[in-house]
Amino acid sequence: MAAAGTQLSTVRASSSDVYVGGQFVVTEASLARNVTDITITESGTVDATTYLNNIRLYYDLDTSAPYDCASESYSGAESTFGATDTNGFSGANGVSSFSDSVSITPTQALCLYPVMDVLKDAADGATIELEISNPAGDLLVTGGVVAKPNEVVALDGTTTIVDSDLTQTHYHWRNDNGLETTATSRTSGNQDTPLSSVLQEVPVRLRFGVSNEGSTTSVPTTFRLEYAPTTETCDLATGWVDVGATDDDWNLYDSTFLVNGLDTTDIANGSGGVDNENSVFLSSNGGQRDTTSETGALTLATNNWVELEYAIVASTTASEGTSYCFRLTDQGETLGAYNNYPRTTVAADVRVAATGTQVASVGVGAKDFHIGGAFTIKENTSSRNVTSITIGETGTADGTSDISSTTLYYDLDTSAPYDCASESYNGAESTFGTHSLSLLLIMARQHLLIQWAYPPLLLCVST
């Protein structure tokens, strides 16, 4: 048993039928016999059980003197020794075993070529190193003899896995109110900020940054915009949908301000751009998209980043209150990494919510008692006036006879994100309207244990 040749210096992740290079050579010195079993070992830094698969040994028979396989080379048309190992190596540094029966003689040597698939998620920079660790036990032949030498037989060289590692780095929500260079930020000039609410049938723009964070040039990549509804974090979302595939919750919007297929430029963050995570902007990119969800095939060198901008709209089938995540893929195949996912929630023009918690109890006879918590009213589209509010009490207290002089106090929250989180009741607020003598509708969710009390409630209106 011997090794000849040298392994490839590099191989790209997501490569199939990779001949790693080199060959294992089995020669016979005296008689004819059959090789029945061969076990090879992988000892590099790659997790060989997870990221290497479909391990095969192809072989030639060298019948030309000096019968050392120097005259043979891999072409891909050779026979396989045994069956393909479809489970990968047995461990991170593991073995792969093959059984067959191939004759060797003093004038016929066996030349073995290792071939395998390197899977997409193999780590950039991981290494592959192949050997036959113990020829006496890892190479079995007929005739009762033991293979030599009594030492490791390793292919020369190391194969390093390289990957472009395309990464969705940043995003920025924008208004559909100008050209690619003049439209404004929807999130006050802040990238990677979820959009708290978006209306059905009102278009928005979504800009992405993608950078090649790997060690080699990317394969041509067709970027596609996809969305998924979720109640969890975006990395756990499932059921991703191509925005351009059908008329569903989210669709492309044929914007007056974008021309589908024109290039994007490197714009400032303040107006809706994103941080530059590499050194050279890929300027020929066709990255303005408003009628098709997929770009042309883009190739990013190791120093490239690109920015892509989509005009999209939530349709009437998008449910109010539902949160959606967005991502780019290579026509459905995930990118190497996602540092940030855009997210937004479909909301009505005016949204009412509750924040904070009611106090647990209050004594009989309490006056000017703040019951705790607040109702928030937020306008999502334009300006309007709140003219009438009705609240209700659903606990065991008699809302007509046991509670009186109900008052709504209010603050106006004019600080982003305009959700009243920055406001609190102090008793000096203005009142909304006049005192009410009873509570009528259903809003509260906690029993109120008071009689003849005067509980002021806090109303915070976001503007």
Query: What is the number of helical segments per DSSP (H or I, 4+ residues)?
Result: 2
Sequence stretches where pLDDT stays below 50 over 5 or more residues: 437-458
Tell me the overall shape. Answer: elongated
Which structural class is indicated by helix and strand composition?
mainly beta
Largest sheet at a glance? Answer: 7 strands, mixed
The radius of gyration computed from the alpha-carbon positions, rounded to a whole number of angstroms, is 34 Å
Share of helix, binned: under 10%
- What's the overall average pLDDT, rounded? 89
Strand composition percent: 35-45%
| Strand tally | 33
Query: How far is the first residue's CA from the last residue's CA?
Result: 80 Å
